Inverse folding.
């Protein structure tokens, strides 16, 4: 799994869940964001979606 902003690989927990945050874009597509990007954009969803374009 990769971060949809910085494209860095996101580690998974032992349960196979990625250590990141899911957000949904305007087309209801699931996007994965690493914690670094999430804090860089202060969890602002619209800014994070803008950053992926
Ligand atoms: Zn990232």
């Amino acid at each position: 799994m990769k971060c949809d902003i910085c494209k860095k690989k996101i580690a998974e927990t032992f349960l196979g869940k990625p250590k990141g945050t899911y957000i949904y874009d305007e087309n209801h597509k699931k996007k994965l964001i690493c914690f670094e990007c999430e804090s860089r954009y202060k969890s602002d969803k619209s800014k994070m979606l803008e950053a992926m374009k």
Notes: Residues 3, 5-6, 8, 34, 36-37 surround zinc ion (CB under 6 Å).
